[in-house]
Amino acid sequence: MNEYTIVVPDSQVLSCVCGTNDNNLRLIEEHLGTTVFTRGNELSVDTEDSSVREKFQYIIDRVVDEINDIPYSGSVNYQDIIASVLNIEKKADLESTSIIVPGAVKKIYPRSQNQADYILSMRTNDLVFCYGAAGSGKTFLAVAEALKLLLSHQKKKLIISRPVVEAGENLGFLPGALEDKINPYLRPLYDSMNALLPHETVSRLMDAQMIEIAPLAYMRGRTLSDSVIILDEAQNTTREQMKMFLTRMGENSKVFITGDITQIDLPKKIPSGLLHATGLLQGIQGIGMIRLTAEDVVRNPLVKKIVRAYENEKE
């Protein structure tokens, strides 16, 4: 026997993977071109073909990961989840679309074709704009790729920034030191880092100044070299702020810019720097532009329906 076996310890998750009368496994078998055997809490394929084994591992890891992220419900169509994973695996190179963060507990995989394209764009371009719906993974994937570059010593520093325009507040009037003032606005980025790495690791990197919090208003005059820089909530930059930020980019740096053009908080007469930049810089070699939609949302399934409803209303 030349079996390759994967253990799925959670019996409820295993049941979701297999489906009623093993219907879900039939989809996986058809995709792999070989039979999938079940014994207890194990799934196995009988093959020496390393490419089939790699695909099998990828598919089961991805499906289990997605099922674990969705609260168990009889209304969830797990066959659709499996079909989506199979479709991504078919189109994408596994090594180039997974993110392995040193010290993280698991690999990060794209959950849609657009997310796979986003990861590839971050690998092949020095400047990437990603705009899309809430929950579509634009910030999380940027943070994962940035941490991978930092912790694999490809970059010396991770710099994270965002404009502060919410609720009409001004940094100068908020209590505490600069970091205390900006921290609430950067909470989504902190949450992403802590979801990928132990809290102690994130704290250590910040204490060593390998991760820097840099409010957008304080970046003028700097040159950011040998770094990976994330600008989040970029829809709330002005045209002048975006130009200033883009021209901070130094030698051997990568810049990931994320935002949601449906959530612009600027005064009505002030145009969004993100909208202006994505139009002005379209087609320039070395600049990637990715749009994520409701189909890429990976939060509670209800969020996808909400985002889709708003997208359809605008159409």
Walk me through what this model shows:
This protein is an alpha/beta fold and 315 residues long. The protein has 13 helices and nine strands. It has helices at residues 11-18, 23-32, 50-69, 78-91, 94-97, 113-124, 138-151, 178-182, 187-196, 199-207, 239-246, 273-280, 301-314; strands at 3-7, 36-39, 42-46, 127-132, 157-161, 211-213, 227-231, 254-259, 287-292. The strands form two sheets. A six-stranded parallel β-sheet has the order 6-5-7-8-4-9. Strands 1-3-2 form a three-stranded antiparallel β-sheet. A hairpin with a 2-residue loop joins strand 2 (36-39) and strand 3 (42-46). The longest helix has 20 residues, at 50-69. The N and C termini lie far apart (56 Å).
